[in-house]
């Protein structure tokens, strides 16, 4: 979803004047539109389905963060060792 600087950066004024056009662009391209005020980025409009995908991906990343910290801190075991311990614990 690379952003096109010639198409995807629009002013708030442009949004007010051409709301349907901007929304159609977002639906068609699936790219976000960056809204500017006085030439500075102020907000980002994203297709609802794309937002949901981004939100789901972000939530998965948040779930992985504790595991990454465990690895950094050395709190892990090799798979072979884990399964041996698991089998012993479950008497498999």
Automatic annotation (TrEMBL):
<dbReference type="InterPro" id="IPR006442">
    <property type="entry name" value="Antitoxin_Phd/YefM"/>
</dbReference>
<dbReference type="InterPro" id="IPR036165">
    <property type="entry name" value="YefM-like_sf"/>
</dbReference>
<comment type="function">
    <text>Antitoxin component of a type II toxin-antitoxin (TA) system.</text>
</comment>
<dbReference type="InterPro" id="IPR051405">
    <property type="entry name" value="phD/YefM_antitoxin"/>
</dbReference>
<dbReference type="Pfam" id="PF02604">
    <property type="entry name" value="PhdYeFM_antitox"/>
</dbReference>
<protein>
    <recommendedName>
        <fullName>Antitoxin</fullName>
    </recommendedName>
</protein>
<comment type="similarity">
    <text>Belongs to the phD/YefM antitoxin family.</text>
</comment>
